[in-house]
Amino acid sequence: MIFFKVISKGLITISNGTLVNFLKEFSKKATNTINNLKYNLLNEEIMYTDETSNNKWYIRNYSNPNTVVYMSYNRRGHKQIEVHDILTKYIGGLMHDHDTTMYKYGQSNYECLIHLGRYFEELIQNIPEITWAKEMKKLLFETYYQRKELISQNIHEFTTNQIQTIEQRYDELLLLAKTENKNISSSFYKEKSIKLMKRCKKYKENHLAYIHNFNVPFDNNLSERDLRIIKIKSKISGGFRNETGAKTYCDAISIIKTAIKRKINPYETISSIFNCKELFAC
Predict the structure, then answer these.
(1) Which domain holds residue 85?
(2) Predicted confidence band at 21 (pLDDT cuts at 50, 70, 90)?
(3) What is the tens place of the pLDDT at every residue in 80-136?
(4) In a domain? residue 122
(5) How far apart are the first and last CA of the chain?
(6) I need a labelling partner for 13 at 20 to 30 A (CA). Which of 93, 100, 117, 223 fits?
(7) Residues 66 and 152 in one domain
(8) Do 228 and 257 have their domain in common?
(9) What is the DSSP secondary-structure string of the chain?
(10) How many Å is the Cα radius of gyration of the chain?
C-alpha cells in the first residue's frame, strides 16, 4: 500500500494483497527495462551508491543523475553485492560515503566530502585544543567553492600550481594533526582524531580527486535523495517480509524513480510496463 501512497502522494490506496500481486506481475514484466537501466549505469563515467538498512534487508542504490536501480540483500559483504551483477562489470568511478567495500570495484573511488565533513565537525565541537580538523574542513570546502566559481566562468580545471598548493596544504595539516593529537586530554577523542588523521592520509587521493577532475562530484547527496523513498517505506511499514517483497518493490521503485528523474509521467510508465513495453532502451 505504501507504494501507491508514495507515488500518488496519498491519493491512491489499495489492499496489501492486491499490492503484492501487482508488484510481482510488474517485476516480471519489467525485467528487460531493469536491464536497460543497468546498462545505462554501466556506461556512465560516475556511479553514486549507498545503502540503507530496512530491518533484515539492506537496500543499495546505484545511481546517476537520470537513472537509479535499487537492489536488495539480507547481509553485507562482497558475495551479496556481486549477486547484483552491477559493480563487477563497472569500470568507471564510484562515489560513496567511505564504504570500504566499494574499493574492490570500479576504476576509481571517490568519497563524499560532506560525509567526511561531519567527522571533522565532531572533532571541532569536542576538542578545542586542536585546529587541524577545522583547517582541513575549511581547505576542502573552500576549494570546492573555488571550483564552482571557475566552472561558472567556463573554466574546467585548476592550474598545476593551484593543485600543488592544495595538496601541500593537505599534507601540512596531516603533519599538524600528528603533533596536535599528542596533546589531546580525552583518550576517547584522541583516538577519534588519530583515526580520522589516518583515514585522511590513506584516502588522500580519493578525497582530492575533485580538484584533478571537475567531473568528480564533491558529495554523495544524489544517493541520499534516491534512498529517501526507501527510508519512508521502512518508517511507515517496517520493511519487507521476504526476499520477493524486497526485490519486487525495488524493481518498481527503480523504474518509477528513473521516470521521475527523466521527467516522464510515472503512471504512463507503469501502464507501458503492464502492456509489455520495454523502456529506457537508450
Answers:
(1) 2-110+220-274
(2) confident
(3) 889 888 999 999 999 999 999 999 999 999 999 999 999 999 999 999 999 999 999
(4) yes
(5) 31
(6) 223
(7) no
(8) yes
(9) -HHHHHHHTTS----HHHHHHHHHHHHHHTHHHHHHHHHHHHTSSEEEEEEEEETTEEEEEEEETTEEEEEEESS-SHHHHHTT-SGGG--SEEEESS-GGGGGSSSEEEE-HHHHHHHHHHHHHH-TT--HHHHHHHHHHHHHHHHHHHHHTT-----HHHHHHHHHHHHHHHHHHHHHHTT-S-HHHHHHHHHHHHHHHHTHHHHSHHHH-TTS-S--HHHHHHHHHHHHHHHHH-S-SSHHHHHHHHHHHHHHHHHHHTT--HHHHHHHHHTT------
(10) 22
Tell me, yes or no, whether 234 and 106 share the same domain: yes
Structure pTM? Answer: 0.91
Rounded CA-CA distance 235/100 in Å is 27
Task: Let me know whether 179 and 268 are in one domain.
Answer: no
